[in-house]
Amino acid sequence: MEKQRNQRLIKSVRRFLITLFILFCTTAAFAQTLTLEQIRQLRFVPEEGQNLFSKTDLKFTVTIPNVRASQVQVLAATQEQDITFRTIRKTEDYKQNGTTIEVWYNFAKEGHYTPSPLPVMIQNRRRTISFEPVTVTPDPSTMNPRIVVEFEDGTKIYSDDLYNTNPVLQIPTGKKIRLTVNLQYATQLTQFSWDLPKNSIFTCIDEYEFTEARIRERVYSHTLIPVASFEWTGLIAGTQKIPTFRLFAVGYKGSRIELRMPGFLIEFTESDESLESENEDDIFSAAFFQEEDEKKNPEVTPLTKAECQTLADYYTREHNEFLLYPKARQNRINYEESCGLVVSHNPIFPSVLLYIAIIIIITSIVFMIIAIKNKHKIRTLMFIVLLVIGIAVMIYCAARKNERYGICKGCKIYSIPQLNAESISEISAGSRVRILESTGKWYYIEVGETGGWCNTDDICVIR
Asked: In the chain, is it the N or the C terminus that has fewer CB atoms within a 10 Å radius of its CB?
């Protein structure tokens, strides 16, 4: 009996040892080990969501899988002069069954950095883990406001840069270049003005919300805030200074600062078309067609104030004429040609259309009454439709007739109705302008894409 009991005990122990052996072999077979190639692929990366600013402690992290924290030891590493080591920390990563290493560095200056690889002891073996390259920028909260002018080809110039005697761009004459004036590191814009360059066409084509002196949210960033966009066309070859932009802005620190753009240079070169045309004129025109060219290009003198008033009177007759409208229009065109002006074949809205609409209404009412008396339903319906069309056309014509136009005597236009304001542009004598608003002795006029305020004495109103 005792012998059978000992045999059963031996069998139980044997089964237990076999089970332990199988468990040990299974664990060893399925255990994950960290290979050298996996270690080479590890990288310290900046933690997401943090601002990569200079003179700020920046956090880099890396997770080593399948290794416990007790099996990892971080060694010291020598870094560049502008990189200062702050602190380091190891934590268990239960998701990947590994170890997360967090290291903090401080960068003294802005720039592109790649810290030196960090030596690490992993399971008693020395390895190195590299860093991802980072771009460190200055802390915007410590920066003063500045002007940034950005050209359409991506070229940027800054108001806090040192003056450069070399041209920043080379542009052919006659070609439009677009530039945008931006403000950086500011919360508010209180005043904005600019000077008009000589021997060129300089037009403000768009002003953005920031020019209305609205306070932005206090968010520190390097974002460029657009103020206005311009088109600049050089007319004469040579070197010109970029227009002087003046801004009064409030910075992140709360101080109000006056900003000016330094006199950076733009070189306007002779365009290929102008060179070709000059050569052709020299070879052929001067030899054979000199007299014909003089006839085609007579010298044009600026219009006097009396001539501008006469032109306004011709437009007034054309605007209000009924039966003799074609003759009045032709007289106006002949006078513009005699003055050397560009003939406008798109006249202001003629009153003759309003008169025609009134005639249609009266005729529709008369014939509609006759059709009702004779009980012609179809004709009655037809004249009702014609009456509705006539009324709609009359309302449209009446609204268009109230639009105000005038002939400019030659003047400067301003951004605000004050003589001491900065002038936006200059309009030549004889130009037809649209009057959108009036206040006191000032008109707000528009010609093409340019608009501004001018004195009422400088405009001959078309009645």
From this structure: N
* pLDDT at 213 (0 to 100): 39
Residues comprising the chain, all counted? 463
Contact 147, 185 (CB under 8 A): no
CA 87 vs CA 3, 58, 119, 446: distances in Å: 68, 10, 15, 64
Collect all residues with Cβ–Cβ distance below 8 Å to 68 and sequence separation of at least 6. Answer: 92, 99
- Per DSSP, 53 falls in state B
Positions of the chain with pLDDT under 70: 1-4, 6, 13, 16, 20-34, 163-164, 210-219, 271-302, 342-352, 449
Same domain as 84, residue 112? yes
Helix (H) or strand (E) holding 423: strand 423-427
Q: Which of 86, 120, 136 is the last residue of a domain?
A: 136
- The whole-angstrom distance between residue 412's C-alpha and the CA centroid of its chain comes to 27
Two tokens, residue 386: 């014609």
Q: In what helix (H) or strand (E) does residue 21 lie, and over which residues does it extend?
A: helix 2-30
Task: Please classify residue 62 by burial: count the beta carbons closer than 10 Å to its beta carbon, then call 0-12 exposed, 13-18 middle and 19+ buried.
Answer: buried
- The per-residue pLDDT for 208 is 83
Q: Which residues contact 347 (CB under 8 A, 6 or more apart)?
A: 315, 318, 319, 329, 332
Q: From the CA atom positions of the chain, what is the Rg in Å?
A: 41
Q: How many domains does the chain have?
A: 4
Angle at 412 between CA 260 and CA 400, to 5 degrees: 120
The pLDDT of residue 352? 65
* Residue entry with tokens 């009446």: 398
Which 3 state secondary structure label does DSSP give 55? coil
Amino acid letter at 303?
Answer: L
Dihedral over Cα of 81, 82, 87, 88: its sign: negative
CA–CA separation, 37 vs 119, rounded Å?
16
Neighbours of 199 (CB within 10 A): 12
Q: Which of 72, 104, 64 lies closest to 88 in space, CA to CA?
A: 104
Kindly state the DSSP code that residue 282 receives in the 8-state scheme: I
Enclosing domain of residue 327: 317-401
- Report how far residue 434's alpha carbon sits from residue 449's, in angstroms, rounded to the nearest whole number: 11
Question: What three-state secondary structure class fits 407?
Answer: strand
What is the per-residue pLDDT across 439-452, written as a single tens digit (0 to 9) for each?
A: 888 888 887 767 88
The CATH number that applies at residue 222 is 2.60.40
